[in-house]
Design brief:
Number of strands: 12
Number of domains: 2
Strand content: 25-35%
CATH superfamily of the largest domain: Urate Oxidase
Protein name: Uricase
Keywords: Oxidoreductase, Purine metabolism
CATH architecture of the largest domain: Roll
Bound molecules: uric acid
Enzyme class: oxidoreductase
EC number: 1.7.3.3
Number of helices: 5
CATH topology of the largest domain: Urate Oxidase
Structural class: alpha+beta
Radius of gyration: 23 Å
GO molecular function, one term: urate oxidase activity
Length: 298
Amino acid sequence: MPTFLGQNQYGKAENRVVKITRDGATHHVKDLNVSVSLSGDMDEVHYSGSNANVLPTDTTKNTVYAFAKEHGIESAEQFGIHLARHFVTSQEPIHRARIRIEEYAWERIETPGEGEHSFVRQGQETRVTQITYDGSSWEAVSGLKDLVVMNSTNSEFRGYVKDKYTTLPEAYDRVLATEVSARWRFGWCDDAQAAPDWEESYARVKQHLLTAFAETYSLSLQQTLYAMGARIIERRDEIDEVRFSLPNKHHFLADLKPFGLKNDNEVYFAADRPYGLIEATVLRDGCEARIPADLTNL
Ligand SMILES: O=c1[nH]c(=O)c2[nH]c(=O)[nH]c2[nH]1
């Protein structure tokens, strides 16, 4: 045969599941976008069209909704673990399951008197997780995207290489803004170890990331990135690796001279493109990098 099958996986992408838990008049919401991807003994469906090993993608979709009822959604990670374990242990031909989840957070609208059943979608970041199981070990990578942050001072950029094409003026007091995309990998990898408290871990990691961004006097976005990752690794034992993709959302001082006005670091043009793109991984000593370099592939 002049051709052969390479890597393959299949499943149902972007199952939107909303679970309402009713605790009397107080309701709780979990809002997820769940993508299932399975792989294993799937040569024949590609070569001959035999579906004998194929659990329909439609069934994987149904399983997501049934599990929301049967197991509830404690956290995106826990839900992903239930699903991954189910597909790998219940279907002989399936050897590996990868569950990707985006979570949209809802915040309660506080109203006097009424029941607690009104929510407003949180506009900050989107929480993400990816759970992978091969029947013996787990990989849990969680993170966030679209978290926009800005420091209106305490940022410089100077002392860089200058060649004949360099025009950038040195900045002693600039605006530093970025839209954080981050992924962190948990050390937890087998059922014998206690799993982390996923909800607590997420809240703490996000807070460390924000605190490091705010507290670092920045000489470059690269330095700020490292400070954010190092703070997470140093303060959260459950995490071994953090990867960031940070677009530098440039704020250029608007030229007000034509109007006879002085711009005393007050008025900026917020450029949307092109943008600097700063990406790096921060690791715990002794741990290896497993998060892909390109976070759009995760
Ligand atoms: O924080 C920065 N890092 C760079 O590498 C860079 N390059 C640039 O033009 N501006 C900046 N800012």
